[in-house]
Amino acid sequence: MTQFNITLTEEHLHGLFTGDGRDKAFTKLLETIFNQVLLIQSKEQIGADPYKQTDQRRSYRNGFRQREFQPGSAH
Questions:
Q1: Which one-letter DSSP state was computed for residue 67?
Q2: Per residue in 12-35, pLDDT tens?
Q3: In this structure, is residue 63 part of a structural domain?
Q4: Mean pLDDT of the residues in the chain
Q5: Tens of pLDDT along 46-57?
Q6: How many domains is the chain partitioned into structurally?
């Protein structure tokens, strides 16, 4: 089983524990976690970090585009 190390900023944590913008902070926190998990999964599937050429590389990827997490969105 893969172990994930998720990196959070002080801003994410501060927003969660203060009353101001708690919903927005939680959404940003989830967005950060999901993006990091997806990046780790793509590295495992491809067999290399982005832009790295290795003998173990099993595939290629076309890249990605930045998108914001939208709660309740079906896409």
A1: -
A2: 777 777 766 777 778 888 888 888
A3: no
A4: 76
A5: 888 777 777 877
A6: 1
Question: Cα(36)–Cα(24) distance, rounded to whole angstroms?
Answer: 18
Residue 64 lies in a domain: no
Domain span at 36? 10-46
Residue 31 lies in a domain: yes
pTM over 0.85: no
CA atoms within 13 A on the CB side of 34: 12
Could you give phi then psi for residue 3, rounded to 5 degrees? -105, 130
41 belongs to a structural domain: yes
Closest CA to 2 of 39, 29, 41, 36: 41
| Whole-angstrom distance, CA of residue 22 vs CA of residue 30 | 12
